Every structure is written in C-alpha cells, then in structure tokens.
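I hope you will forgive my troubling you with a question about protein structure. The matter concerns a single protein, recorded as an amino acid sequence and a row of backbone structure tokens. Please examine both parts with care and let me know of anything in them that strikes you as inconsistent. Thank you for your consideration; the sequence and its tokens are set out here:
***
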Amino acid sequence: MAHTTVDKGELMDQVKQQIAVANAQELLTQMTTKCFKKCVNKPGTSLDASEQKCVSLCMDRFMDSWNLISRTYGKRLQREQSNM
C-alpha cells in the first residue's frame, strides 16, 4: 500500500513540474510578444541599439511585474489556507 502512495507523490511532483514548465513557457511567450510589439517598429535582420535597450527594459519591467504579482498571489493563497 505504501508503494502506491509513493507513486502518487511522484506523479504529483511530475505534474507540478510540467505545470511550472508550461507556465514559464507562457510567461516567455507573453513577454516576447508584448516587448517585440512595443519596441520593434521595423523588423529586420538585427535590432538597433535603441530597440535592444527598449526590449531589455521592457523585459525587466515585465519580470518585475510578474514577480510582484506572483509573490502577492502566493501570500494570498497562504492566508486563505491558514484561515481554513
């Protein structure tokens, strides 16, 4: 019986890991799409210096926002779980 519990635990860990990878991929896709649209007016073979700076700053702001939202959401979940 204990062997089944371990298998369920391992399966849950694998599912959580797959969800985390999918979330990271979605984050990267959203960030790339938003920053490309914002910063690259005339797509070419390379980015000029101002486009590179814009993309870099955009990605930094996007990640800062994402991290803030993630921390806030995590704290809210913890509060709700402790209230149960």
